[in-house]
Write a structure and sequence with these properties.
By secondary structure, the chain is α+β, with helices and mostly antiparallel strands. The chain contains 8 helices and 10 strands. It has 2 domains: 155 residues, Glutaredoxin (3-Layer(aba) Sandwich); 43 residues, no CATH class.
Length: 219
């Protein structure tokens, strides 16, 4: 019983604010250790159910088309599915031949499901042998900052992934929060006061002031 418990604990689903569980795996770019790959960079890691499937092909192609944009945001990409390295390479080659899109970011060959289990990508109610569409955002310190999950039959929204990444980076850089539907260039929210001194500082603060706890300003 104790052995089972330890095994279950080893695969506890990580949460926002947790240190990203480290791993070393084979990918389409060779061996990859997450902590080395992540060092000094943001990382967006995303799983797909299987190679040579229609929704996954549209999603992985979209990530490939946006690779340079992610690089401009100091962000590296990692894909994953529970397929072999040979299947990954054949799929990448097929997509390149058919569409001209080259998925040249690392794609993890997670045959033993170790990474999928480590990150809670297996949802038995949805499928027991395929990873759901999960997206993990990790900051340069290796901390998980945002998690998204989608069912097997619904593709992710690339605009939202990009928006969320820019919002996280903007909030970190400027010590602010981002309101609903925020996009780059919109006003940000000043953190609400935690002390009376902070409250007094808001009295003459410039910006769109709804109340002392809700003040928006330009960056």
């Amino acid at each position: 019983m104790e052995e089972v418990t330890q095994k279950e604990q080893a695969y506890t689903m990580p949460r926002i604010g947790d240190k990203a569980p480290d791993f070393e795996v084979m990918t389409t770019q060779g061996m990859l250790k997450l902590s080395d790959y992540n060092k000094g960079n943001w990382v967006v890691m995303f799983s797909h159910p299987a190679d040579f499937t229609p929704v996954c092909t549209t999603e992985m192609s979209a990530f490939a088309e946006e690779k340079e944009w992610f690089e401009s945001q100091n962000t590296k990409l990692i894909g994953l599915s529970i397929d072999s390295i040979h299947s990954h390479i054949a799929w990448v080659a097929n997509v390149k031949e058919r569409t001209g899109i080259y998925m040249d970011f690392p794609i993890i060959a997670d045959l033993d499901m170790h990474v999928a289990k480590l990150y809670g990508m297996l949802h038995p109610g949805e499928a027991s042998t395929a990873a759901v569409r999960a997206v993990f955002f990790m900051d340069p310190e290796g901390i998980i900052r945002l998690i998204m999950y989608y069912p097997l039959n619904i593709g992710r929204n690339m605009d939202e992934i990009k928006r969320a990444l820019v919002a996280l980076q903007t909030a970190d850089t400027n010590g602010v929060a981002c309101p609903v539907n925020w996009r780059k260039g919109d006003k940000v929210i000043v953190p609400p006061p935690k002390t009376l001194k902070d409250y007094e500082a808001t009295e003459n603060m410039e910006g769109d002031k709804t109340d002392f706890y809700l003040i928006k300003r330009d960056l």
